[in-house]
Write a structure and sequence with these properties.
By secondary structure, the chain is an all-alpha fold. It contains 8 helices and no strands. The chain is 74% helix and 0% strand.
Length: 213
Amino acid sequence: MSETKAKPKSSWLNLVVDYGPLLVFFLAYRWAKPDEGGGVGEVIAVTKSTLAFMVATVIALVVSKWRLGKVSPMLWLSSVLIIGFGSVTVWLNDPFYIQVKPTIIYLFFAATLFGGLLRGKAMLKYLLQSAFEGLDDAGWLKLSRNWALWFVFLAIANEVLRQWLSFDGWLQAKLWGVSIASFLFTFSQIPMLLRHGLGAEDKVEVETTPPQG
């Protein structure tokens, strides 16, 4: 009796892969930051938490390949940017680079999706590797458009948060505010997905945002 070795879908594991590194980043910073904000102590805390973030991102890639059987292009690209900007942050001891990284990621994916839409292609389908089985081409195009607009909003929001909040406030807003908003945005798309071929009996594999960073 032969069975294909397809990896099971797991919504909870997708959430761990997407949000686990960001949670590690937050917890590492809370553990390492000094009692008084600012100064050299805060820079050291940012460096330590960024290193933890980078390690957690690599672990998330391994877990995704091992347990889910794939690493989506979206996860690959965002992980490369996390490690790249994280390395610059550690090297220069400057939190600016790890804070501006989400803006770059969001704008990059927005440009990719808008570029695909101009050519009549739903690039989100390739970035997610068909996370929504049964969705027709019109549905993929609408989903790509909606996510492109959402990424633009996230880029603007990150810049506003970065300019107005302390590093600690920015990190908390990213973990609790942006992550929850993105999760709710994802589920707000389900009625449209169902109208475009995603069967009610199909299990939606949760894909929220590009892995958080």
